[in-house]
Amino acid sequence: MTTDTVGRFLHALSPEHREDVQLRPREEQQRLADAWEAELAEDHDLDTLSELSVPAAESEAAARVMRKLG
After folding, report:
1. Disordered: where is this region (predicted)?
2. The whole model's pTM is what?
3. What confidence category does residue 32 fall into, taking pLDDT thresholds of 50, 70 and 90?
4. How far is CA 43 from CA 4, 20, 36, 49, in A?
């Protein structure tokens, strides 16, 4: 498993969102990955979910970041 933030974020995304993000400039990918990490750190509901399934929590946080893009 990759340890860089962008790689982890891409892994957490659904396939269609992953393709969309991969087409974006690296700086924007990093900005989205940073937003994803902030979502994971700040949302207490995700903390509870991560106790059950870390991949599920990461995937939910990634989906939230993408929904915020509109």
Report:
1. 1-30
2. 0.84
3. very high
4. 21, 25, 11, 10
CA dist 28 and 1 (Å) reads 22
Mean pLDDT of 32-53: 83
Question: Which residue is it, tokens 């400039």?
Answer: 25
Radius of gyration of the chain (CA): 11
Q: Do residues 21 and 15 touch, judged by C-beta distance below 8 A?
A: no
> Which pLDDT score, from 0 to 100, does residue 46 have?
73
Q: Are the C-beta atoms of 19 and 69 separated by less than 8 Å?
A: no
Helix, strand or coil, per DSSP, at residue 2: coil
What is the phi/psi pair of residue 48, to 5°?
-65, -45
Higher pLDDT, 68 or 43: 68
